[in-house]
Model the fold of this input.
Amino acid sequence: MVRNVAAQARPPRSAAIKNGAIDGVVSTQGGTIQLGGAAVVVLNPSDVQVVTQISEGYGHYHIADLAPGAYRVSVTLDGFATKIVPVVVAAGETLRLDVDLAIASISASVTVVAPVNVV
Done:
């Protein structure tokens, strides 16, 4: 008796999980001024850095190939308050995340130095 192995039922293959992405613009003043050079950092639930990207000249950033799941996105730029946003990335989807940074508090100080008398 000859068995036809090809005719036997095979277990179904699991579909490949598609990764997702995050796309957005970093700005200030209610979105009126785009901020290039901002660090956009994606952290996993254990606060481990997954990826870091710098926003382009007009504030745009695009982070691709993220496994589906929960993350925290931290956006920083000198002179602005850091913003951390929780997000959920879905398989095969691009999440739109525009981030508006507040201007950091300004503190002023004056240092007065008396000249040294040279004799």
Summary: The chain has no helices and nine strands. The longest strand covers residues 20-28.
